[in-house]
Amino acid sequence: MADHKHGSMNTDVQEKTFAGFVKASTWVAGVSIGILIFLAIFNS
Question: What is the chain's percent helix, strand, coil content, to nearest 5?
Fold first, then answer.
């Protein structure tokens, strides 16, 4: 078994994936809030 060195793993792919997840979550939250505001204004 290879020796493990703490902090030596390349995490570029994981960081890019997480950044994409945060960006997508932000967009979904924004669109959801926009839809709720639209419904609140025009559904009366």
Answer: 70, 0, 30
| 33-36 contact pairs (CB < 8 A, 24+) | none
> pLDDT tens digits, residue range 2-40?
787 888 888 999 999 999 999 999 999 999 999 999 999
Backbone angles phi, psi at 38, to 5 degrees: -60, -45
**What is the value of pTM for the model shown?**
0.71
**Token pair of 29 as six digits:** 């939250």
Q: How far apart are alpha carbons 1 and 41 in whole angstroms?
A: 63
